[in-house]
Amino acid sequence: MSLSQTPSGERIHIGFFGVRNAGKSSLVNAVTQQTLSVVSEVKGTTTDPVKKAMELLPLGPVLILDTPGLDDEGALGALRVEKTYEALRKTDLAVFVTEAGRALLPVEKAFLEELTKRGTPYVTVFHKADLCLDRSEKEGLYVSAKTGEGVEELKKRLAELGMTAQQKRPLVEDLIDPGQTAVLVVPIDKAAPKGRLILPQQQTIRALLDHGAMALISRDVELPTALASLSKAPRLVITDSQAFSQVSQLVPPEVPLTSFSILFARYKGDLAETVRGAAALRQIDDDDTILIAEGCTHHRQCDDIGTVKIPNLVRRFTGRNPKFVFTSGGEFPQDLTPFSLIIHCGGCMLNEKEVKYRFRCAKEQGVAITNYGIAIAFMHGILDRSLEPFGGLGAFLEGDSNEEETPLL
User: From residue 333, how far is each of 164, 338, 361, 365 by CA, in Å?
Assistant: First the structure.
């Protein structure tokens, strides 16, 4: 996958934050060397977060976020500030932009405290340095988008911060050795996008190839033929969650089996919390509400997995008729207490920061959260088997004081 094709969920997110007229947009344009954001002397010109994918050497592919002012006013202004803090959820590195030569405003101090609270690495930029004679402040970088002063140094600092923050997370590489074969089961139905594979499938194939392993890709209906074509059993079978039930019956017990959703739960989120969250499906009642959350937006088919298949499976499994609420893309409620359970997608279109934010919110508010693949495996009674590549179900229940009260299987 080329840099220009790197999905946004795999890019380091760099957010520019500050009050209105601090020059955030001018600075973004200077860093990207493009007229990405509209610039004017009018306060509040940026009314919605603006995104730009680019390459920042030596860091690599990044996503630049320009955000509305922290001090925006009025009813609309409050909504814009809310969008700014929504962007902060996704931000891996922050650029805090303030005007050189003046004291920090209360709203700026509060924002810096929020950055520290969230553990978000940041660079403080004293902007409009060309207009400032007093440069006594040492905890930051003096920059001028107008003259170009400090712009290259800012890029350098961001790259250094990013290289430190960036970590190598295994997707599938630790489950298979170079030279071994993984069978990927990819159903092609009405919900499958025409002419392409969905992102989790693409990323898994690429990870296997980069690792020196081999990928045999098959539809669920051809899986028996695919398995029979191999001279020895595959090291691993990875299936789309929708085909879990059929595939588990076709794959020999001695062959490890998991799903793309489970791989991504470990890759970006909290696999242990996701596994434990599935237990809540046993307590669902008619008056409960379940949130089905997807990280992407797409045209939904009549048999869509999130809005149709999973709710139907939950009804059959529980024998109850709970209410379902659906969100997609950047939508995610701040107040999760009305929900008895959250069933989230694999999060392939979200970055790790956003996925972990959502899981942290659920945990802090005492709401169980799981994901598509684990929920489906649990309801089909094959969760233990689907977790064998990661040590089995017991590996996720060790030290869980509620294990006897809320058994997963």
Answer: 31, 10, 10, 12
Structure tokens at 352: 């790790």
The stretch 29-49 carries a mean pLDDT of: 63
> What is the torsion angle, in degrees rounded to the nearest 10, for the CA atoms of residue 192, residue 311, residue 200 and residue 158?
130
User: Which residue did the predictor score with more confidence, 1 or 129?
Assistant: 129
**Cα–Cα dist 237/248, whole Å:** 10
In contact, 347 and 9? CB cutoff 8 Å: yes
Residue-wise pLDDT for 350-381, tens only, equals 888 899 999 999 999 999 999 999 999 999 99
The predicted structure's pLDDT at residue 10: 80
pTM of the model: 0.78
Q: Compute the average pLDDT of residues 55-74.
A: 87
pLDDT of residue 111: 95
Q: Would you state the torsion angle of the CA atoms of residues 198, 201, 207, 212, taken in this order, to the nearest 10 degrees?
A: -130
pLDDT digits (tens, 9 = 90+) for 301-339: 557 888 999 999 999 999 999 999 999 888 899 999 999
3-state per-residue secondary structure call for the chain: CCHHHCCHHHCEEEEEECCCCCCHHHHHHHHHCCCCCCCCCCCCCCCCCEEEEEEECCCEEEEEEECCCCCCCHHHHHHHHHHHHHHHHHCCEEEEEEECCCCCCHHHHHHHHHHHHHCCCEEEEEECHHHCCCCCCCCCEECCCCCCCCHHHHHHHHHHHHHHHCCCCCCCHHHCCCCCEEEEECCCCCCCCCCCCCHHHHHHHHHHHHHCCEEEEECCCCHHHHHHCCCCCCCEEEECHHHHHHHHHHCCCCCCEEEHHHHHHHHHCCHHHHHHHHHHHHHCCCCCEEEEECCCCCCCCCCCHHHHHHHHHHHHHHCCCCEEEEECCCCCCCCCCCCCEEEECCCCCCCHHHHHHHHHHHHHCCCEEEEHHHHHHHHCCCHHHHCHHHCCCHHHHCCCCCCCCCCCC
Asked whether the predicted pLDDT for residue 169 surpasses 90, the reply is no
Sheet holding 214-218, edge to edge: 214-218, 181-185, 236-239, 257-259
